[in-house]
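=== Structure Prediction Worksheet ===
Name of assembly: unnamed complex
Input type: mixed (protein and possibly other molecules)
Chain count: two
Listed entries:
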Amino acid sequence: MRRLLLAGAAVLALGASALLWSTAPERADPAVLEGIAPDPERGAQLFLAAGCASCHAAPDAPPGTRPVLAGGRRLASPFGTFVAPNISPDPQAGIGTWQPIDLFNALKYGTSPEGRHYYPAFPYTSYRHMSPADVVSLFAYLRSLPPDPTPNRPHELPFPFSVRAGLGLWKALFLRGGWVLRDPPDAAAERGRYLVEALGHCGECHTPRNALGGLRRRLWLAGAENPAGAGWVPNITPARLHWSEADLLGYFTTGFTPDYDTVGGSMAEVVENLSRLPEDELRAIIAYLRAVPAVAPTKRQKE
Amino acid sequence: MFGKSAIAATVLGVGLSLAAGVVLAASHGGGPFDAAIKARQAHMQLYAYNLGILGGMAKGAREYDAGLATAAAANLAALSGLNQAGYWPPGSDSFDNDNTAALPALWDNLEDAGRKGAALAEAVSALQEAAGNGLQALQGAIGPVGQACAACHKAYRKPQQ
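=== Predicted Assembly ===
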């Protein structure tokens, strides 16, 4: 009996370590970024399109062209409250000691320089589609911003979500699959796909999630419960998005809806960023939104 | 037996109509702040109507007309200059009234709300100067107005359901 128990325990331990090993944080070979020269101007635009400041700028920071990325913004979720970290170039509090490959691993695999899993509140599920050249340019831009010594505050997560090792399994389940729109109809929609699916991480709010917090890709952009509180994030597939191109462009540049109400909720910050992008980029986003499959609203969705 | 279920049905019926009555009363106002809430919603509607004229031109949905644009911008300037203190009385917030989306936080941060109002007046005054100077000038000046509107809505308006 005792031998049987021992054998059982050994099998369990072996299984657990195999699981941990197979779900250990992934990292890239630094050679992937070799020889790529940064383009800081491009980096500034990527920074806007990816909405980095919306989470990483301090909550009370005045909007400016050179944001201080001190962190501290709190993000409520069904799994607990996440606190955005300091990503300013401060060597202690921020990412001042990082190399471009560290940013690449963070964006691509959700892996920290110390080899830990990041929580997917940091939307690497989307950012992983960024090109190596863009990561290098974004890194150069982040480095040019003012340093800030504000230390990071821990996330406020209940057990079992407080155990980071579990994230390896989450990644194995949900950090997969290529582009959602496999065959964009033209170059504009293809560019829009990069802006929406990779940089803008629009799907993180506009696509519903399953019980484990994974995106339900078959319901891409079909609207979802608001993670930050009451109400719904709207369905922006052609099933529900009936605004004209001029309406959408006006919304992205001024924040006005077609009936001259204004953009609400966290979308207000998205529009602050979008309004500073070149018009071509905004038209590409619209071309993409016209090309995604129309998904009818779910029964629970009362819009 | 029959009597019992009849009583139950009656009780249930009375309960339901009472509940319906409460819901109706709540959604149809009848509160002490209804007139003030209606007044400020009318104010917002006048903003939206005049912005519609300017926005329609800016996005090419209607032809640019310098005179009409100037008039609409002047209306916005007049609206942003009105003293609205009378129709934002304390207690007329979304916590106690179903017919408004104005969050209680507005009354906790009146100074900030005032600053946001001043920012709107400033953006509108720039729009007023630009509106008659061609389509491009109009297009350039309408964005900051949208941002000023959104800044206050973001902070002090309950998100729509």
